[in-house]
Specification:
By secondary structure, this protein is α/β, with parallel strands linked by helices. It is built from 5 helices and 5 strands. The protein is globular, with a radius of gyration of 19 Å.
């Protein structure tokens, strides 16, 4: 016969313990590394760049959207963050403002979006990399 405490503990463990293995991984942005990114793009693999400035409100909104999305949905896509203030040479090469999300696939740029802070805007760019 189960006691109330045992029953509650068992129920909680079953409910919360079972959910942990199935939790989706969030998208993880790696710091931009020119060698790695160029190699991935040339190989034709999907790549997404987020040009980000720590003081930019639109950048924070985009980063929040990216971190809320499930990474397993974008399996095979490599995500990189370009530091707008610390990597001016990369920003100049990309010819873009801060708060820009760019997708690459098949060795070329597919699309880009600047300043958009709606989830749909960000997801539309990511989906072109699939």
């Amino acid at each position: 016969m189960l006691t109330r405490r045992t029953f509650i503990s068992t129920t909680m463990l079953a409910t919360f313990g079972a959910a942990v293995p199935f939790a989706a991984q969030a998208i993880e942005l790696q710091p931009y590394n020119a060698t790695t990114v160029e190699k991935l793009i040339k190989s034709g693999k999907p790549v997404v760049l987020h040009v980000y400035a720590s003081w930019c409100l639109q950048c924070h909104a985009q980063a929040s959207i990216l971190s809320s999305l499930a990474g397993d949905q974008y399996k095979g896509v490599s995500f990189f963050r370009v530091d707008y203030d610390g990597q001016k040479d990369v920003v100049a090469m990309l010819k873009c403002p801060r708060s820009t999300v760019i997708s690459f696939k098949g060795g070329k740029e597919i699309t880009r979006m600047s300043w958009g802070t709606a989830e749909k805007d960000v997801v539309d760019v990511l989906n072109t990399a699939l």
